[in-house]
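User: Can you model how S-adenosyl-L-homocysteine sits in this protein?
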Amino acid sequence: MAVYSNNEVKSFLSGERDTFLFEEANRVQNEFCGDRIFIRGLLEFSSFCNKNCLYCGLRRDNREIVRYRLSREEILAAVSEIHSRGINTVVLQSGDDLSFSRKLICSIIGEIRKRYPGMAITLSVGERPMGDYQAFYDCGADRYLLKVETMNKKLYSFMHPGQSLSKRVMILEHLKKIGFQTGSGNIIGLPYQSENDLAEDIMFLSGFPLDMIGVGPFIAQEHTSFREEASPRVEKVRRFLALLRLTTKNAHIPATTALATLAGDQEQVQALIYGCNVLMVNFTPGKYREDYCIYDNKYTISLDKAVELTRKASRAVCFDRGDSLKPSLDIDGTG
Ligand code: SAH
Ligand code: SF4
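Assistant: Here's the modeled complex, given as structure tokens:
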């Protein structure tokens, strides 16, 4: 892994070395990830949440939104749809919703595993009772995504009432120890976040090490106290993503929905050239989709759109499971 000092990271993020940064990110992507863009099927199965993250529309105290939960059958039907389109990863995401008990989630994972043995299962269901993570792994989940959001301890505590950054990191370490392909990430442009905070985020995200890194710009949600807050400039997000490619070499980094919401899908095309190697296609049933309002005007893409964007970036759509690229790197002895 390329190791940069905090000051070097800051000079990249400030735009002083843009030409080198973007060329090098493209080169590193070609070398370590090839030209493949992995497609993931995303299913947002519950908008209930017991957390109160200040920036998020799903926060517990927001009474203005319609909440929904998919039934086990609805989830399995959506997974069947994902599978029938040839996609071999399902990402199950939700608010932190303990009504989905350990038993229920295990039974859903077990059923997916039974019906589609070759399919990878990624969970993005937030913080759970400690024993749940191992149980989910044991019944067949492969990957777990838990974003740290920011590595500034104070900002983290302010943004996440009742939560702590040290617990979040401890859970990530636990997930890794269990054997999950582990993902994390941050939000760029959170209110009160500084340039130094972003540099610290890069240092953490590239050093952990992580198999997948989800990064998105902050986007306001009308029913939160940050409704008037601006999103970051797209240049800032670009530099952050390119620098992550440079520092992590082979982590899976999606060109996120939040990036497309900020700057349009042509920015996703660019992102597939300056470092991102994953696209998420939304398979949440239409009648629920609007209600998963973590932020406003969420831009989602269809599978056809994902194929089109990939072609525009002169890259190749890949329907494989797309497991972590880390082990092969280690076998090479270069990890
Ligand atoms: N409840 C789970 C997963 C669902 S939230 C969890 O929090 O881990 C998924 C992601 O949405 C969060 O990790 C956060 O980074 C992102 N998010 C929430 N509100 C956002 C906003 N206003 N702008 C950008 N990203 C946001
Ligand atoms: Fe809940 Fe996740 Fe939104 Fe926080 S970010 S309020 S945990 S859905």
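A couple of observations from the model: Residues 224 and 313 are 36 Å apart (CA to CA). The radius of gyration is 19 Å.
User: Helpful, thanks.
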